[in-house]
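Data card: per-record layout.
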Amino acid sequence: QVHSVWFVLASSVLFTMAGIGAGEGAVFEVALTAASAQRLAGMVDAAGSMATSSEQLAATAQSLEDGLGPASKGVGADVILRGPLQTLGALNGELRDMLYKLRDELGTLFTTGSSQELRPLLRDLAKLPSAKASELGAVRAQAAEWTKQCSAPGALARYRHFEALHREHVAFDAELRSLSDEVYELREERAAADGILAGLEERLSKQRGHRKGEEYELARYLGSSLFRWDLLRTKVAHHLATTFSASREEAIEGRGSEDIEGAEQKLGAIEERLQHVAEAHKKLSERRKDLGKQLRSFLKSLVLSCEATASASGPGAGQTTAPRKYHLLGGQRLGVHVQAGEEFSRFLNATFAHSLPQTVALLEQVLQPYMVTGDMDNLVLPTTWKARPKVGRWWEWLEEAGGKPVA
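The structure for this 407-residue chain is written out next.
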């Protein structure tokens, strides 16, 4: 499946920290801090969601094609949506096909250690949003025309309100990304400050007092809510632990200038800031979730009112065999078309505006150190890269000559 490629990508990004290039004897060094590891993990998480959604919508398009039957005659709202749905499905299909190619080429890179086709493909992916922007904008406007065929009172005004709610939902996404960046930095600062204090306590044979319960509640939220994949959570936890250990060793050896009182105050201040930002992140996430439910309920209410006013078409005339996920709207043809159209439209708009450009930028950033000098389209992974490790033994993805995992 498409999303499997992002599991490989996550492994390569987050476990490939350093290596000696196989090409032309060049030496490449790539180091991730705890904050940058979290940022990359967030991008990989978003990319995985994009790939999975594209595959699911492709299956939806096929189900609609198989289950809805031939287009009806006339100018009903469901008939108006058929053309836009076909165009939206084609746009998603083009995206999905390019993701398939990306999956295959990444597979080639990670199993053979080299690729000459991946960077040209990334350039094509980077051009896709701008190349399809006008077509996507036009078909989204066309898809909204169904409301003009709805005779329910205030249908157009209600749909405009629905669009306003959706814009608010998109704004929440942007705000959450900003808060996440703050959390990433503060988690790294906290791990370093905690390590310094722990080292000073060990060197001076002192022990700090009991911590507040809120700290552990915060750690549970951050550990479970920022990233969806356990692989990403594990690697982020590894980087935070490494940051803690390095700072602790530095304090034990007396290489820092902090005193224990100052270190404790610094840690307390960072934890207070982290608590504030994390609480804001949690509240905004909950508001976003509630708004998502409101969006679905509002759309359902609007479509049902439109279907009710169109009941003169005869009992069962609007029924259709629909994908199971659309049974929420009762299997009515209009409801099926509207829900599918909204999902396609919102997914492609968000993907072209944010997810796809971020994914391409992430891959370019990760792969840049492995471009062969004089042939920038030729990628060669380090000689320490192990092409076919067991999935459960993540440390085998990249090992040094002595078998020690690269941190």
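Known properties of this structure: The radius of gyration is 26 Å. Residues 14-30, 71-75, 312-331, 399-407 have pLDDT under 50 and may be disordered.

See the next section for split statistics.
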